[in-house]
Amino acid sequence: MNQEIFAFRADYHPVLAKLMDQMGLVETINTTLREEADDVLVDTGTVVAAMIHNLLGEGAIRLYRLSSFFADKPLPLLFPWSAQLDPSQLNDDRAGRALDTLWAAGPQKVFSAVSQQVIKRYALDLKAVHADTTSRSFCGAYDDQDAAVPQITYGYSKDHRPDLKQILFGVGTSRDGVPVVAEVCSGNQSDMTWNTRWIKAVRDQVGLSADTPLVYVADSALVTSGNLDVLADARIDFITRLPERFGIAEDLMEAALSRRKDWLQVGTMAAGEKAATYQLWETEQELNGRVYRFVVVHSSSLDERRLRALERHVAKEGALLEDALTDIRQQEFVCAPDAERAWARFLVQHAPAWHTLTAQVKGHEQKVKRARPGCPRKNEQPQVETVYRPGAQMERDAERYQQERDKCGMFVLMSSLRHREEWSGREILAEYKGQTGVERIFRFIKNPAWVGAFCLKEPERIAAFGYVVLLAAMVYTLLERQVRRALAEPREAPVEGLNRQLTRRPTSYAIQMALTPILVIGQRRRGQLELRPSGALSQNQHRLLRLAGFDDGVYYWRGKMPPLNPIYQTG
């Protein structure tokens, strides 16, 4: 083997490096942090960038193997601002100290500084901020925690693991889907009180002035009398889902169903054959002393959970009624009025919700049982009597059932945006559906491959690392946003996504896979190292690089041979 030539695995990491450099991520972090010791070999901003590379790479994440992750990577391409970096300097001890430094400086302040820089450089759309929370479960005791640190404790588990302790992640994204506001907080934090705090701070976090219009989009936990007051005082408009715990939600759905002819047909809100179609009905009503706009939405895609519950209730009522009807059908009455009164009592006692009961009282002749035992005498005529029975029948109440079935596809949106000329009902629905951008960040946070990444002992380090995860999500979604914006231009043809399907909206993962694997060859020449791709990039790879704002130059580098990197050494 020629020891003067080396092979490296680059994949899409040089693109991430250029993007982080373009964001000013490392510089902003180092500027925001407190002064570090003079003997630090690798600045904290670069260590954070290294952890982001690790998080956005393939395979399980282990911070204690951080240096191993970079052993086969072309570091000058991954750290263009620190091309002489040695992977042995990126070890678990340095990562731990970097997290300590991050915590001491205030990780939320650091995230906010990077966020504001990104908002300015990329002109992110902040007409609305989409906010939500999720939890991350942990095993371990975590006793005697400092009160100033987010508590790893029991709380409402969104992982459906109430037996485990957790911390809470709060995330706010721009309309582009890029996280711009973030918080790691205690696991027992209520979404309602979390929203209160965020409403007061959101403008400062994203660098908006107090008079800048802003729409806060959140789930139904936003709707409390206190939060509505805080929103009004902060002059922040909002869009949310009206909780079904409010009786007005049921009333609004009933009102909409009674006015079907007034429903607005808005069609689909997404591409695809199975995309749901939507219909809207709007009104305004007072709630807690203020008038709000309510948009009742009907979707052709039913809520399967609610539909299953409806079917269970209908089936259970039907089974109970059938047993009761069997009993009353067998009862005999001496006159029709007695049978009718018994049927009336039956209706009062059972009062079905999902079925209609009918009965026609009919007389039936039957032989009277002989008083004496034995055979009847010759020519003895049998005695006959007339008895009356309710001929009860049961049918499903088709109209009521259909109405409730329709409700399984209905929900109510609530908003302070009352000017319909500026915000149509369709636009309010579309903005609320933008919450999927936050949910995508949650899938990112809950990535099963990252379980080992959170294997940290100190709660302070866990909280600080949580912000590193959110910074990684910012980088990942920003790459996707850049490519999608470029593809929105009419002159641009679709690119190949997953399974080589053409798309104008590739996901970050599809971009990552398209740029994987890419190998880079390193060659030593007179104390210099020259890096270049091992082969020609495909047309699709060239296009993705251009759409992201770069070119294949991200895979080329020439400079002084890194003296400390063992992988570059001969012999």
Can you summarize this structure?
The chain has helices spanning 13-23, 25-32, 44-55, 66-69, 75-78, 92-105, 107-122, 191-206, 225-234, 247-257, 304-330, 336-350, 398-407, 425-433, 436-445, 459-487, 508-514, 539-547; strands at residues 5-9, 128-138, 165-173, 179-186, 215-217, 237-241, 264-268, 277-287, 290-299, 355-367, 384-396, 410-415, 495-496, 502-503, 519-525, 528-533, 557-560. The chain has 571 residues and is α+β, with helices and mostly antiparallel strands.
Topology:
Layout (H helix, E strand, L loop, with lengths): L4 E5 L3 H11 L1 H8 L11 H12 L10 H4 L5 H4 L13 H14 L1 H16 L5 E11 L26 E9 L5 E8 L4 H16 L8 E3 L7 H10 L2 E5 L5 H11 L6 E5 L8 E11 L2 E10 L4 H27 L5 H15 L4 E13 L16 E13 L1 H10 L2 E6 L9 H9 L2 H10 L13 H29 L7 E2 L5 E2 L4 H7 L4 E7 L2 E6 L5 H9 L9 E4 L11
Parallel strand pairs: 2-5, 5-6
Antiparallel strand pairs: 1-15, 2-3, 3-4, 6-12, 7-8, 8-9, 9-12, 10-11, 13-14, 15-16, 16-17
Helix pairs in contact: 2-3, 2-7, 3-6, 3-16, 6-16, 7-16, 8-9
In percent, how much strand structure appears in the residues?
15-25%
Counting DSSP H or I runs of 4 or more residues, the number of helices is 18
Radius of gyration: 34 Å
Low-confidence regions: none
Euclidean distance between termini CA atoms = 11 Å
Tell me what you see in this structure.
This protein has 571 residues and is α+β, with helices and mostly antiparallel strands. It is 39% helix and 21% strand. It has a domain at 302-350 and 383-408. It has 18 helices and 17 strands. Strands 4-3-2-5-6-12-9-8-7 form a 9-stranded mixed β-sheet, sandwiched between helices. Strands 1-15-16-17 form a 4-stranded antiparallel β-sheet, with no helix packed on it. The chain has a two-stranded antiparallel ribbon with strand order 10-11. Helix 2 runs antiparallel to helix 7, helix 6 packs across helix 16 and helix 8 (191-206) runs parallel beside helix 9 (225-234).
